[in-house]
């Protein structure tokens, strides 16, 4: 599976790039949020985290500028019924990650429904399944006892989000990364994820 690509932008269209990686051109679909961060003009080198979607008749690559964007994409595709890559990309193109999280945590289906192609019922299902089945509400809030350090809270949340995308229950993800972070306050997101997977 392709997990990351780094190369020069060969061709650029809205939400779609051709990356020249060692002479091979890869077509990658990219959400607007990533496009805004990368400014992928032709000839510029960019690095993308990749999700490779395989079907019987096609293989599609989706690229993301940050791990947080990819993790939210995976949460939507893997944990919310009826949400495929196209809708997940529309969500990431339709609003900033922080605003999406706030809408889910605050039961704001009206805001989510403003995303083109989403609709009220789909917005309500996203909120219901992410909050009740996955339990993102606590994950997207600072951990108790760690609120005072913004960087630490961000690291904790990013690690929890990654574990949720990998199938962890919210309570298990929170418990595991909090313990790992207290044992090693300097741990990176990758360190916390690795520790949690080893202890599972």
Describe the structure.
The protein has three domains: 4-64, OB fold (Dihydrolipoamide Acetyltransferase, E2P) (Beta Barrel); 67-134, 5' to 3' exonuclease, C-terminal subdomain (DNA polymerase, domain 1, Orthogonal Bundle); 138-198, Helicase, Ruva Protein, domain 3 (Orthogonal Bundle). It has helices at residues 32-38, 67-79, 85-94, 97-105, 109-112, 120-134, 136-139, 150-165, 170-183, 189-198; strands at 4-13, 16-21, 24-29, 45-54, 59-64. It is globular. 34% of the residues are buried. The chain is 51% helix and 19% strand. Mean pLDDT is 85; it is low at 142-151. Strands 1-2-3-5-4 form a five-stranded mixed β-barrel. Helix 2 (67-79) packs across helix 3 (85-94), helix 8 (150-165) crosses helix 10 and helix 9 (170-183) packs across helix 10. It is an alpha+beta fold. It has ten helices and five strands; from the N terminus they run βββαββααααααααα. Strand 1 (4-13) and strand 2 form a beta hairpin.
| Gross CATH architecture of the largest domain | Orthogonal Bundle
Per CATH, the superfamily of the largest domain is 5' to 3' exonuclease, C-terminal subdomain
Strand order of the largest sheet: 1-2-3-5-4
- How many domain units? 3
Order of helices and strands: EEEHEEHHHHHHHHH
Q: Would you report the number of β strands?
A: 5
Specify the overall morphology: globular
Query: Stretches where pLDDT falls below 50 for ≥5 residues?
Result: 142-151
Described by its quaternary structure, the protein is single chain
Number of helical elements: 10
CATH T-level topology of the largest domain: DNA polymerase, domain 1
Mean pLDDT: 85
Helix/strand structural class: alpha+beta
The CATH class name of the largest domain reads Mainly Alpha
């Amino acid at each position: 599976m392709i997990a990351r690509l780094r190369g020069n932008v060969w061709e650029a269209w809205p939400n779609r790039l051709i990356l020249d990686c060692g002479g091979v051109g890869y077509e990658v679909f990219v959400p607007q949020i990533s496009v805004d961060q990368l400014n992928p003009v032709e000839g510029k080198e960019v690095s993308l985290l990749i999700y490779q979607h395989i079907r019987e008749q096609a293989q599609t690559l989706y690229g993301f500028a940050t791990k947080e964007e990819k993790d939210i994409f995976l949460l939507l595709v893997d944990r919310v019924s009826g949400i495929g890559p196209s809708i997940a990309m529309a969500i990431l193109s339709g609003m900033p990650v922080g605003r999406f999280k706030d809408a889910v945590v605050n039961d704001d289906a009206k805001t989510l429904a403003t995303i083109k192609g989403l609709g009220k019922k789909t917005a309500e299902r996203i909120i219901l399944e992410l909050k009740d089945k996955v339990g993102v509400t606590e994950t997207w809030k600072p951990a108790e006892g760690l609120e005072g350090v913004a960087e630490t809270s961000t690291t904790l949340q990013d690690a929890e989000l990654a574990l949720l995308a990998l199938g962890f229950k919210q309570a298990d993800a929170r418990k595991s990364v909090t313990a790992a972070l207290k044992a090693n306050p300097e741990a990176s997101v990758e360190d916390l994820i690795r520790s949690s997977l080893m202890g599972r």
